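Before going further, learn to read the protein records used in this course. A complete example follows; check for yourself that the lines match position by position.
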Amino acid sequence: MKIIRSFLITVVIFFQFVVCQNSIQKEIDAFSKIEALKNASISFLVIDLETSLTIAELNPKTSLPAASSAKLFSTSTALKVLGSDFHPSTTIYFEGTISKDSILDGNIWVKGGGDPSLGSVYFNEKGEERDFLENWVNEVKKNGIKQIKGCVIVDGSEYSHLGVPDGWTWSDMGNYYGAGPSGVVLYDNMLKYHFQTGTPGDKTTLVSIFPKVDNLNFNNQIVASSKRGDNAYIYGAPYSYQRFGIGELPSNRKDFIVKGSIPDPEIQLAIELKNKLEMEGVKVEKGAKSYRLEQSNFINNYASFTKLLSHPGKTISEIVTLTNQKSINLFAEQLLYLLSKNDQNIGSTTKGLEIIQNCWGKEVDFSSMYLTDGSGLSRSNAISASHFCDLLSSIYKSNIFMDFENSLPLAGCTGTLKNVCKNQLGHGRIRAKSGSLTRVKSYAGYVDSKSGKKLAFSIIVNNFNCTSFQLVKHMEVLFNQLSEY
């Protein structure tokens, strides 16, 4: 009787497994036949993390641009290599001597440490973004400095001055989501344009910008429209002070903010600190300088300088969480820089990408996978659902799993998944990173199924013939089926 009972239980479990497996496979097969996807490219895979068995698949090895889901590689590697408690720092020095009458015969130096949280709107309450400057100025004054005969020099040279990674397009650079990584990050490298709009068809008026950027030449071609939302774009190359805006903004607004990128964060921080010093009564005779532009005139011999203070940034865990929750491109790129600086003593996108492969190379098959940045903004990235599931499986078996999983948006609840599967079967059961570009939509992450199983999944769709909103509605049917498994 015991043998028969065991056999029957085994048959029932196997039958349930096959039915569930077939239902998910049928769902992805049906998904692929949707009229709006008849010319689309799709890569899909879901695996059981305990058994490593494939539950369902569709072109799992096909590599495609995956947009911001690519951030899973940069964020997980940062947690694993740097550790959750690591924090980048910005260090302030003075060069020269201080006389009895409190005059510094030399310069103030700011050594950038690649900290993305300095003055960040994500880590500071509105209006408090500049508070760190007051702390720095107070430290200068505590050391008896009331006048600076030299200048304020900001130095981000331990990180590359390339501006943006390879593969970023002209239509992205100049906008806030196209702010490039740098040794010095200030206010998320974000420039806020404040516009006043009139009747539809009329040109808008640029009222102010924050922070104030000296010598910025802005060509405004943005007009008012009856459409809702921000339909304007800012164009401009890194380090260029030529910017122009095109597109439309809602009509009859007194203050509509469009977010762009700061042309040169290094010199901008120097100007901000110099202005703050002078507001507090500390005269800076020779102004603000960027080491990138002044390397022939100054020597950054920090061993001979006097350290004033080290300003700690937020931890890697905090940065990773915001990167995944809010899909912040700049933060993901800075993580690559920090990985490279930690390993090679120079911040570099290319070196950071090499560290990703070195970190996960034994568990993830990187063949036919191409990464050119850390954020997924580049369309030259190509990743398959299999690559994502290999990574997610490796993370699941590692000591960073809890921190990493908790950093991901929760379906129906938080981040970029707040409205996905809301009040449906997938609500509260899926933690995943989303990705969106024009004609690109992707998700990759974990599922806690109704039966108690832990799944890893990835879906990437390119060149769909419907709105992104409509595509997500189709995907929700599949996500709910995974949650039911």
Remarks:
- DSSP finds eleven helices and 19 strands in the chain.
- Residues 21 and 78 are 34 Å apart (CA to CA).
- Residues 17-84+316-484 form a domain with the Beta-lactamase fold (CATH 3.40.710.10).
- Confidence is low (pLDDT under 50) at residues 7-20.
